[in-house]
């Protein structure tokens, strides 16, 4: 195995059909998985050309998931920020997050390949719930790997998965979070590759997963672009999304990446502070390396050993990121910033109080960055936030922490 040169910035626009995004991506997996990846890639490319697959996918997204998701104004948050803030409401999808867009697409692929056993990994539990949901819909066996620490933090989602018939496999190695769950899922797939399909929940992993998951999530961006033009008559000045592995961000970025005048901002988890060493800011402080089958930015020491990640949000607690984000960073098409745990809690409280919407802790990072950046935009420059998931799953965890930050006085609702 060789590590490609990552020193030069490649073309700005990533190629949708490439297995690499600039120098990033690729396949760094055991040889036993190559035939399965080849078969998956061939089936995926054939499905894209098959009108019946697109009809089935569109029907599921419309009549089961609830797409298109709506676009909501956030009037009181807008008054605080000084610019119109709009929310793409993936929290209103069936199961409460963007994750189900991808699981619907991948389960339809698995059925085409005759695979009836589904493997998944999950951190915050939303991908696990989405996978268990679609498996229940089609009567497929479902095994979800989840770190013990995340099982503790996301007990409600564990119960939901088991209710729908999934087997939740606790992972006790390492930090007992998403990285370790992903490693265990890959080990299971190596052993059971003949009859099992592995649904990776983000734009990470070996090719073709990053581009495939991005395309299954791209409905977010396509809808949002059309809705912004319809509601405001213009494109947003800035599109903002939280980034762990990066699937909701790639989904909404996909609708605007060719619009050079639209800023793309990904918000990583700074955890207890970038200087503390306890964070998940792989694009801000990471370096290129290989993790879970692809080359991207990750948190690693000088010897290439992966450093443990930390975030208050189980969904962002991952030391790597999708390779397309690495390319967008290196080509300077997107900007990546970070928000601490405490700032994310303020975002969690702020959107709940100001708009009556309880956001997931992941999304709260994006909310917090927009509020913290007030004054950055003119009063006629719209800001679009991907509201990737709802916060029901996080309420118990946050309530155990005690009092939330005081968000201070809020503006009156506009007359």
From TrEMBL:
It comes from Roseisolibacter agri. The gene is trpB. It holds the Pfam family PALP. The modification N6-(pyridoxal phosphate)lysine is found at residue 99. GO terms for molecular function: tryptophan synthase activity. The lineage of its organism: Bacteria, Pseudomonadati, Gemmatimonadota, Gemmatimonadia, Gemmatimonadales. PANTHER family: TRYPTOPHAN SYNTHASE, TRYPTOPHAN SYNTHASE-RELATED. One of its GO terms (cellular component) is cytoplasm. It comes from the Bacteria. Tetramer of two alpha and two beta chains. Signal peptide: none annotated. This is Tryptophan synthase beta chain. Its cofactor is pyridoxal 5'-phosphate. The keyword Repressor does not apply. Keywords: Amino-acid biosynthesis, Aromatic amino acid biosynthesis, Lyase, Pyridoxal phosphate, Tryptophan biosynthesis. Its EC number is 4.2.1.20. The beta subunit is responsible for the synthesis of L-tryptophan from indole and L-serine. InterPro entries: Trp_synth_b_CS (IPR006653), Trp_synth_beta (IPR006654), Trp_synth_beta/beta-like (IPR023026), TrpB-like_PALP (IPR001926), TrpB-like_PALP_sf (IPR036052). It catalyses: (1S,2R)-1-C-(indol-3-yl)glycerol 3-phosphate + L-serine = D-glyceraldehyde 3-phosphate + L-tryptophan + H2O. Pathway: Amino-acid biosynthesis; L-tryptophan biosynthesis; L-tryptophan from chorismate: step 5/5. PROSITE patterns: TRP_SYNTHASE_BETA. Residues 68-389 form the Tryptophan synthase beta chain-like PALP domain. It is an enzyme of class 4 (lyase). Belongs to the TrpB family.
């Amino acid at each position: 195995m060789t590590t490609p040169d990552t020193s030069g910035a490649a073309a700005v626009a990533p190629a949708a059909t490439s297995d690499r995004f600039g120098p990033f991506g690729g396949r760094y997996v055991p040889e036993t998985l190559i035939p399965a990846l080849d078969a998956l890639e061939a089936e995926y490319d054939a499905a894209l050309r098959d009108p019946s697959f697109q009809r089935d996918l569109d029907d599921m997204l419309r009549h089961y998931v609830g797409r298109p998701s709506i676009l909501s104004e956030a009037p009181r948050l807008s008054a605080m920020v000084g610019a119109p803030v709009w929310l793409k409401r993936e929290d209103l999808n069936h199961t409460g997050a963007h994750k189900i867009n991808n699981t619907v697409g991948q389960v339809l692929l698995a059925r085409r390949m005759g695979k009836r056993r589904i493997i998944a990994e999950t951190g915050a539990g939303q991908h696990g719930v989405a996978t268990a949901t679609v498996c229940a819909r089609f009567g497929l066996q479902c095994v979800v790997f989840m770190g013990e620490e995340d099982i503790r933090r996301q007990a409600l989602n564990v119960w939901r998965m088991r209710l729908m018939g999934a087997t939740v496999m606790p992972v006790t190695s390492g930090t007992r979070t998403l990285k370790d769950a992903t490693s265990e899922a890959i080990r299971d797939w190596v052993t059971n590759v003949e009859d099992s399909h592995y649904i990776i929940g983000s734009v990470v992993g070996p090719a073709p997963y990053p581009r495939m998951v991005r395309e299954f999530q791209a409905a977010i961006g396509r809808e949002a672009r059309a809705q912004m033009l319809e509601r405001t008559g213009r494109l947003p000045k800035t599109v903002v999304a939280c980034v762990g592995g990066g699937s909701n961000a790639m989904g909404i970025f996909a609708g605007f990446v060719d619009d050079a005048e639209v800023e793309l901002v990904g918000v990583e988890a700074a955890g207890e502070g970038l200087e503390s060493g306890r964070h998940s800011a792989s694009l801000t402080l990471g370096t290129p390396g290989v993790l879970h089958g692809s080359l991207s930015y990750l948190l690693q020491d000088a010897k290439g050993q992966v450093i443990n990640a930390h975030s208050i949000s189980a969904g962002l607690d991952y030391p790597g990121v999708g390779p397309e984000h690495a390319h967008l960073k290196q080509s300077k098409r997107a900007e990546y910033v970070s928000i601490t745990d405490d700032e994310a809690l303020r975002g969690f409280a702020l959107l709940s109080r100001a708009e009556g919407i309880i956001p997931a802790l992941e999304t709260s990072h994006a909310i917090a960055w927009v509020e913290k950046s007030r004054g950055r935009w003119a009063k006629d420059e719209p800001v679009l936030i991907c509201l990737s998931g709802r916060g029901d799953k996080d309420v118990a965890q946050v309530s155990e922490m005690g009092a939330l930050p005081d968000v201070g006085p809020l503006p009156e609702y506009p007359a």
